[in-house]
Amino acid sequence: MAVTTDKAEKKFTGKHMLLWLFGFFGVMFIANGFFVYYARSTWPGVVEESPYQASQNYNKTLAEAAAQKQRDWHMQLALKRSQQSVILVVEAKDKDGQPLTDLTINATVGRQVTEEFDHVVTLSPSGTGIYQGEVGTLEPGRWRVEFDASQQGQKQFQTHEIVALK
Fold first, then answer.
1. SS3 79
2. What pLDDT does 140 receive?
3. 119: helix, strand or coil
4. In the chain, which stretches have pLDDT less than 50?
5. How far is Cα 52 from Cα 62, in angstroms, rounded to an integer?
6. Distance from the Cα of residue 4 to its chain's centroid
7. CB 91 within 8 A of CB 105
8. Which of 105, 122, 111, 116 lies closest to 145 in space, CA to CA?
9. Radius of gyration of the chain measured on its C-alpha atoms
10. What is the pLDDT of residue 141?
11. Which has the closest alpha carbon to 158: 91, 113, 101?
């Protein structure tokens, strides 16, 4: 006895190929659209407000960096937790190891890739060569501390990476 099948053989036609192409590229278009939206909404992309102006001041920036290197100020940073907030402590010494007094220190504490969590702090003297300021609340993790210290027209700019613990 012979076995017969009533099922017709399905063929892969041009219509099927067109549907597969539209499906594949449709998924790619949606995924890329999501990534573009996410990239544009999470970081503004601005590193320098005026790149042209920064390029015009480049020689001045190099001279300031050379003067800063020659001053050889040493800055030690620490984050200390108090009852409900975090305190940024900076210990400042000159190249001979003597404490630096009469400094004006402004700092920005923030995450590496976003400006959303930035805290701007003005540090005040709390001892010989020691300056501190209240940052507020910081989640545990890695934080970027940018600060500039000035004394009678002399400036020091530094960026540090620091870890805040619970």
1. strand
2. 84
3. strand
4. none
5. 16
6. 71
7. no
8. 111
9. 29
10. 85
11. 91
Q: What tokens were used for 130?
A: 């020691």
Q: What is the pLDDT of residue 16?
A: 93
Please report the sign of the dihedral spanned by the C-alpha atoms of residue 153, residue 154, residue 157, residue 163.
Answer: negative
Task: Give me the pLDDT at residue 5, please.
Answer: 60
List pLDDT tens digits, range 16-37: 999 999 999 999 999 999 999 9
Which whole-number Å values give the CA distances from 81 to 103, 160, 166, in the listed order?
24, 18, 8
- pTM comes to 0.65
> Could you tell me if residue 60 is left (phi over 0), alpha (psi between -120 and 50 degrees) or otherwise beta?
alpha
Helix then strand then coil, in percent of the chain rounded to 5, is 30, 35, 35
| Largest Cα–Cα separation, the chain | 108
Q: Is 53 exposed, middle or buried (0-12, 13-18, 19+ CB in 10 A)?
A: exposed
Instruction: Tell me the residue ranges of DSSP E strands in the chain.
Output: 74-81, 86-93, 104-110, 119-127, 130-136, 141-151, 154-164
Q: What is the pLDDT of residue 9?
A: 79
Residue 166: how many other CB atoms lie within 10 Å: 5
Angstrom distance (rounded) from CA 152 to CA 156: 12
